[in-house]
Every structure is written in structure tokens, then in C-alpha cells.
Amino acid sequence: MAKNKFLENHSKEECCGCEVCTLVCPKNIIEMYSDDEGFLYPRVTDNSLCINCGLCNKVCPVSNPIKVEDSIIAFASGYVNSEIEVKQCASGGMATAISREFIQRMRGVVYGVKYSDNYENILFSRSENVEHLYAYKGSKYAQAQKDRIMVSVKQDLINGLNVLFIGLPCEVAALKNFTKNKFSNLYTIELVCHGPTSRKVHREYVKELCNKYGGQLTNFTVRYKYRGWKPYYVLAEFDNLKKHIEIFHQSEYGIAFRYMKRPSCSTCHFKLGDKQAGLQADITLGDFHYCHESMEAYNKWGVSVAYIHTHKGEELLDLGIIECKSFPTDARPALKSSFALKNAVQKKANRKEFSKTFSSKGLSKACKLYSVRCIDTSMKAKSFVLRFAVRMRNLLYNCIGKRR
Question: Where are the beta strands (DSSP E) in 116-255?
């Protein structure tokens, strides 16, 4: 019996869950299955049919990434003109502004990530209507379901449509591999990535809330701006008019996001300047964390930072500027805002224990582990020192500014 040599020897640390290997198999014998953590991985359904053509290996963005020149040719920061819309977005709303103008001015289609109607799933979606872009707003911290969305992207490209694809760096890299990076009408935006948790975590958290409040969700976000941009809050609203609000990083969802990311995230090569892969998109977008009150770009409800890699990225930025207040941005504060732009987020020392407890006893039990409390206490102490240092820095900048 023949065996698929590539998938047989492919470890979980080497799989980003992009699903493109399932799309290129000439025998249609590769499927995605969910492990106990809720992450998807490929497997061969019938080894006797495998012809070891190697296409799954060739299309894999982890094994065979397209190495690109991922240098940053420009930096920018800003936020959409509407304060109401800034509050709805994860940071400054630059991705929303670009997407809207892309549809209106380039007659294009936009692919992004949204929640399902009942908020229990996270999935990629296609939009050619600006009204549908609302669903893409806000960060989703669990890995999105793709199904055959990249087939849809490729077909749109073949049909000559301008396509904007917004995803995580590994997802953009997978799309580039799948389309062989040959379409001039493909535009891409990747988000600064700290590594996603699983949709199983998301589902358990959402179901626990529904059981607690005795209703069905009518709205859900993990980046609700309660009193300002930070800290991030979870907001859940129900059909019985009840409401749940809590600080995201103190929630069970936030704990799982810290302690159980996809295994491949700790060895991710889709980072700025990485010799094996690097960043593949035209623009990378993130939160301008280093922006403070003395800076012109500051907005208490959020600021986006953009790292432009290509001339297409400059085109996209020009579209965004139509709806945004945009500011020239120095490299130093822009790069300091995004540790994950260059660095993979290392797994926690207790990840195996957290995973085992989550898989056997559920999300709540895993989040109450003694090891979680110990590590969190240490992290809070380090965070306090860092915030104090940042506060002192901002006071110093304000004093210097007033003297001038």
C-alpha cells in the first residue's frame, strides 16, 4: 500500500492549517480533521489511492514558501474619519477604509473573516458589497475556517476581478502558493499575528455565555472599546436583552488565547526579515501600540499602523487615506509597536498541561490551573513595570513638547 510520504512525516509544528493541500490533490483523498484541541490538520483518507505526486508538498507554504523581498518601503498610521466607526474597529479602522474604497473605486471583491450568524463559528467570507464589510470589523482570535475559499479567490482572479484578501500572514502565504503568485489583480493585507487559538475554544466560551444568560447571541466581539482603545473587552449581547462585559485578557477566552495557540505558531517563519519565508502581503496592518497622547496620530479610540511592502501596498494605502486621517510615521515607534511583526510568539511552559486539561475537562477547568495563575502573576508583574516605564516616557515627551 502506498503512503503519502509528505503528510506521513509532517508534524503539527509544521502545519499552519491553511487547507490548500486538500485543494490540489488529484485524487481528492486529503481531508482536514480536528484534533482534541480543535485545530485542523490534513490526513489521507485512502492511502491505497495516493500516487505520491508531491503536489501537497509543493503547495505547502511552510515547506515551500515563496521567498519575497519583504522590506518595508513606507510606514503610515491613522484612523478612519468617523469616530463611531473607529469604536467599531479593532484599532483605527484602516483595513475597513481600504476595503470599502477597494470595492467602490476598483470594482473589486474583498475576502475577510467574520462570525457565523449564531457567533459559534469563525469563517472566511467573500464580499462585493460595502454593507457586508461590517462583519469583518474587529479581531477574531481563533483560527478561521477556510473550506474552499481559496478556490473562490482563484476563480475571481481568473475572471479578471480585482481581489483584496485579508488574513493572517500564513494564510496570505498559502494563497500566494495556491495561485502560484502570478496574478497582478491580487492585493493582500496581512494582520500582525500573535498566533490564534482554536475555534473549539471560541465555541466553548460562546456556549458557556449562552447557558449562563439563557439567551442567544445577537452581538459578540472580543475587542469592545468600553472606555477607550485599551484594555480590550469582551462584549456579548443576547436576544433577551441581557449583556456580558469583561476584560478580554481576564476572560477564559483570553486565557486560552495566551496558553493554547496553534503549535506551528511558536516556530512561525512568516515574520519580517525571516530568511525562510518572510511576510508575503502588500501591506501588514496592526495596532499602533507605541502611539501616545503627545503624538499627532493619537486617538483614544484606536490607531492603525501600516507597514507597506510593495507598490500595490502603496496603492492600497492611497485608497485608505481617502477615508482616513493619515500621518507620516517614523520607523522606530512603528516597529516598536509590533513585537510579533518580527518574532514568533513562544509557547507557554505549561502548554501541554493546559491542552490536556482543556481536551478532557473543558475550557473552565483549564483556565483554573495553578500553573496558569503562577505564570499570569509573573506576567502581570512584568507588564506593570513596562507600563510604568511607558508612562514615564510619555510624561517626559509631554514635558519636552510643552517646553518647546
Answer: 122-127, 163-167, 186-191, 217-224, 233-238, 243-247
Alpha-carbon distance of 272 to 307, in angstroms, equals 10
Q: Is 295 helix (H, G, I), strand (E, B) or coil?
A: coil
Closest CA to 248 of 263, 236, 260, 261: 236
Please classify residue 397 by burial: count the beta carbons closer than 10 Å to its beta carbon, then call 0-12 exposed, 13-18 middle and 19+ buried.
Answer: middle
Annotate 286-312 with b (16+ C-beta within 10 A) or e (fewer).
Answer: bbbbbbbebbebbbebbbbbbbbbbeb
Q: Is the entire prediction scored with pTM above 0.70?
A: yes
Separation CA 350–CA 374 (nearest Å): 10
User: Omega before 231 cis (within 30°)?
Assistant: yes
d(CA 239, CA 217): 6
Please write the tens of the pLDDT for every residue from 64-110: 998 888 899 999 999 999 999 999 999 999 999 999 999 999 999 99
Residue 334 grid coordinates: 512603528
pLDDT in tens, 107-161: 999 999 999 999 999 999 999 999 999 999 999 999 999 999 999 999 999 999 9
| Distance, CA of 33 to CA of 114 (rounded, Å) | 21
Rounded CA-CA distance 368/187 in Å is: 43
CA angle 76, 286, 137 (to 5 degrees): 110
Q: Which residues have C-beta within 8 Å of that of residue 191, sequence separation ≥ 6?
A: 95, 139, 166, 167, 168, 169, 284, 285, 286
Cα–Cα distances in angstroms (integers) from residue 34 to residues 180, 198, 207, in the given order? 28, 10, 19
Site of grid cell 468600553 = 226
CB 52 within 8 A of CB 4: yes
> Is the distance from CB of 264 to CB of 37 less than 8 angstroms?
no
- Vertex 362, ends 356 and 364: CA angle to 5°? 115
Using alpha carbons only, give the angle 182, 183, 189 rounded to the nearest 5 degrees. 110
Among candidate residues 307, 227, 287, the one with its CA nearest the CA of residue 93: 287
Letter for the amino acid at 329?
Answer: T
Contact between 306 and 68 under an 8 Å Cβ cutoff? The reply is: no
Residue 401, classified by CB atoms within 10 Å of its CB into exposed (0-12), middle (13-18) or buried (19+), is exposed
Helical H segments across 179-299, by residue range: 199-213, 252-259
- Mean pLDDT for the chain? 94
